[in-house]
Amino acid sequence: MQTTDIGSKENGKLWQRKPVPSNNGILVNLIRNASSYQTKTVRFLHVAFDTTGESFLAGDHHGNIYLFDIGRNRFQLIQKTGLACTALAFNLRRTTEFLVALSDYSIKCYDKDTRQLVSWMRGHEGAVSSLSVHASGRYAISTSSDTAQLWDLDTFQRKRKLNVRQSTGIQKVLFLPLSNTILSCFNDDSIFAWESDTLVCAYQLPVPLDGPRMHYKAFSLTQDGKMLATGGRTNLLHLWCLESRQLVRVIQMPQAVRTVRHLDFLSDSFDGGSSQILGVLSQDGIMRFINTETCKLLFSIGSHEDAITSAIVCPKGRHIAAVMDSGAVRVYSVRALTQEIHKPPQPLVRLVTGEKVADGLCLKMKVHAGTVRRPKRTSGCKIRTRLLQPPDVSTLEDKENDLPDGLNKKRLQTLLRTFGEYPAKYRMFIWRSLLRLPENHAAFSSLTEKGLHSAYLSLHEHYPIKSPKLQRGLQRVLSALAHWSAIFGETEYLPLLAFPFVKLFQNNPLICFEVVATVVVNWCQHWFEYFPNPPLNILSVVENMLAHHDKELLRHLVNCGVTSQLYAWPLLETLFSEVLTREEWLKLFDNVFSNHPSFLLMAAVAYVTLCRAPLLLCTHRDDFEYFFHHRNNLNISVMLTETYHLMETTPAELHPNSVLGDFEPLTRGQYPIFNKYPTFIVEYQCQERERIRQEEVEYLRESRQALQEVRAEAVRQQAEDEAWYMQQDLLQQAEVQRRRLLQEEESKLAQQRARLAAMKRELKVKELTLLDAARRRFLTHQQNQRRIELHRLDDEIQRKVPSLYSPLFCARLAKEQERVSQEVKTEVEARRRKAELDDLAFHNLLQSDSDLNQETQRRVWLIN
């Protein structure tokens, strides 16, 4: 297998020499290590083939899009988006363009040759999980969890939008090949077909009523668009005939398959689009290819150690591009993978068993696996036949040391004594072989389907863990153990014992459960006989061994009041996880699983004896408690050497071998019954817990009922308050309205009064003007009369001039002038007084109107 590190290169060759597919079909393994430090790998996320099947796109989590051309042996960096991609599409009508869905919920179209942005499409409010392109390459459907949108790739405008209720959710929407039909698959397992032009529902596939619910997650169509394969959270596959719109076949995958993550039909050049080979990617990271007609497993890619996260088959069925769990992209040759399938059948082995007959030959046909052997033709004589025998049977000891997967326990122990630990890459594989795990998928599923055990519902309160995923994994494994045996629902230290294995196997709960169960059955023998107390019999064995190997230390511990429950039990109940680092703990359990169950007790004694120097300096009980619950400076290699020494030098009467039995693996099919504990105590505790739970349920029910009553009363009171406040608001609004009307009436009255006063003033002015004009006419008339009178007098004077000089006449004239002037003064004074009286009356009238207005306003304010 050739491995190509892209690194920071923007273009280059995929391989330096033409690759020859290996036995597992791998052409090339593509990785990208960061340039600053080689240990960090930039993970690839998604891949997409073009219509030819010779080129594919791959996007990493840094936002880089690479084009890999298998036919031309070239790769190049064609775009830097800056955001991680969530889906890719490379089968558009314009072959140089491709679609990429980004983590900011947008979709962009780029040109791979010019490396220019062609269009930018927005509209989703969640991550786009898939892109489906019409066979013509002119339309595309983007799918997120809450909506699906139909895009016109000529104008890059949205044509249609499919919205669903949040409770339903969309799984996938895709085009049906060779037609204008759109398939939509929802979270409730319903599948609808729509016409892409009008979006009228064409039909709905019937939801299977019998059997478990599928929870469809994966979908795949054949190239002729006649068959649909669906899979979900079970090991069942449904094959639908879209012409008859019926479920035609249900295929059950092996028990190792619990969830189907991806489905992809493998097309063939001669099948006319009706593919019969289906690739099934399951939760274990293995993609199995099966024949849908014969239901036979043809081949598989990936493994537990090198799992596949996603894969895609090229349209021509020549290559498979798989994104590995390590972040690499692996290209497989379908021709190499199917080479064994297309081989002609092996020739038959011919064995001569008969005697001479008429034609001199008598052959019997029989099929044997292995090398083909052809007997020589002979004449009519009898031929002695020698059958090939298998190798000699191994001895009984060798049979006991033989492990699954071709391993040998003796050889593993030799390897372990030489290097001190197993290789980290193969450690989990070796452990599974040493423990002989049965992998009872059905039995484990029956335990997990019972849900969380009541004893571990509040586990997060007593054992808080930062990682929610780890917390759920621990809760799931402990619940399965409690459902397996009632004692594990009452054991307080079980989370401490199981936590290291849960953290180690957090991605495989079945293996984790079986490892913990195997440890409990073999290395925790007789631990539960004194339940709920610690295993006093096991602790006495440890104390007896310590007394034999270090009497002085044991005497010091006894003098300080420290028993085996303080110096041995903390090590055993946590399986040394509190006092050792991860690497030290793994190294220890490499040796624990490779030896007799008594090795764990010997390790506890070795730990105590090697720490004798600091223990002899401790005198207080708190110091001892702290010492055995925290890490100390201890060389794990020295501890293992001392443990093996104790295993060899401990006398037979003190050796735990006499107390503990040999290793017994879990049984296949169903897990063994575990009842090695005082059942009456556990049953009593279970009954007490159930009673307390019932009381809590009753208390919660009463509290809930009281709370409901309080809430109802609060709602009623709130309704009354709202009604009262609403009434007050209405009254205030009515008062404001009445005030507004009153103010309007007052303003109208004031305006009317102002107009009336103005009219009065205008009339008074007119009257005064008329009076003044009359007075002036009268005065003018008087003046004219006086002037005429004066003229007359002047004429008379002129006529009587001669007599004017007489004294009597002068005196009379003076008297007459004085009388006339006095009358004029008197009349002028009278008219002046009359004018003053008229002005005073007018002013009094104005003052009375002003006083009347003020009195009216005062009364209005008093009313308000």
Automatic annotation (TrEMBL):
Domain of life from the UniProt record: Eukaryota
SMART domains reported in the protein's UniProt record: WD40
A UniProt-annotated Pfam family: RabGAP-TBC
Residue stretches making up the Rab-GAP TBC domain: 421-596
Localization, UniProt: Cytoplasm, Cytoskeleton, Cilium basal body; Cytoplasm, Cytoskeleton, Microtubule organizing center, Centrosome, Centriolar satellite
Coiled coil: 700-769
An example Gene Ontology biological process: cilium assembly
GO molecular function: molecular adaptor activity
InterPro entries (UniProt xref): Rab-GAP-TBC_dom (IPR000195), Rab-GAP_TBC_sf (IPR035969), TBC1_cilium_biogenesis (IPR051570), WD40/YVTN_repeat-like_dom_sf (IPR015943), WD40_repeat_dom_sf (IPR036322), WD40_rpt (IPR001680)
Described purpose of this protein according to its UniProt entry: Molecular adapter which is involved in cilium biogenesis. Part of a functional complex including OFD1 a centriolar protein involved in cilium assembly. Could regulate the cAMP-dependent phosphorylation of OFD1, and its subsequent ubiquitination by PJA2 which ultimately leads to its proteasomal degradation.
Name under which the protein is recorded: TBC1 domain family member 31
Gene transcribed to yield this protein: TBC1D31
